[in-house]
TrEMBL record:
The keyword Transcription regulation does not apply. The lineage of its organism: Bacteria, Pseudomonadati, Pseudomonadota, Alphaproteobacteria, Hyphomicrobiales. Residues 46-73 form a coiled coil. It comes from the Bacteria. Keywords: Coiled coil. This is Putative structural protein. Pfam families: DUF892 (PF05974). InterPro entries: DUF892_YciF-like, Ferritin-like, Ferritin-like_SF, YciF.
Length: 171
């Protein structure tokens, strides 16, 4: 069920579908992060990805609480957007031999995922606020803040911790 389907008739339907979308997305990220961690060589990047893997598990727990508040069981709906971002990340990683360039690509791919999540959580917060689901807003806001922090950490790794600099000098 996509966002432009006849099954979505109300804001409540939109909110539930959006929660299912991000729930599925977070579960796919849980599967993808260990592969990124395994391929990364920069220790700051590895540490950041490991930390975000732990955060993502907690984000899934918060999403499950949001479903519970709505009286629904947690469930996901396939998200072509996250599937595409992860597929692109895997394809890119498979094409790069130089480890320093690979680290830069991992940062970029991880940031693409973070930006998607930031967008999705922001929308869900707005919808939940409009519908008066303050308890759900708190869960989603915590997740959003973690996604923003993860993106900032990735920026730091790329720019201040030298990942981009090292990649730019690769032969």
């Amino acid at each position: 069920m996509g966002f432009f389907t006849k099954d979505l008739k109300t804001m409540d339907d939109l909110l539930l579908h959006g929660l299912q979308d991000i729930y599925y997305s977070e579960q796919q990220i849980i599967k993808a992060l260990p592969k990124m961690i395994e391929k990364a060589t920069n220790r700051d990047l590895v540490a950041g990805l490991k930390n975000h893997l732990e955060e993502t598990n907690k984000q899934i727990e918060r999403l499950e609480k949001a479903f519970e508040k709505l009286g629904k069981g947690p469930s996901g709906t396939q998200c072509p957007a996250i599937d595409g971002l992860i597929k692109e990340a895997n394809e890119t990683a498979g094409e790069i031999e130089d480890k320093t360039v690979l680290d830069a690509a991992i940062v970029a791919n991880a940031q693409a995922v973070e930006h998607y999540e930031i967008c999705r959580y922001g929308t869900l917060i707005a919808w939940a606020e409009e519908l008066g689901h303050d308890d759900i807003v708190r869960f989603l806001t915590t997740n959003l803040n973690e996604e923003k922090a993860a993106n900032t950490k990735l920026n730091t790794v790329a720019l201040r911790k030298g990942v981009n600099k090292k990649a730019s000098t690769a032969a």
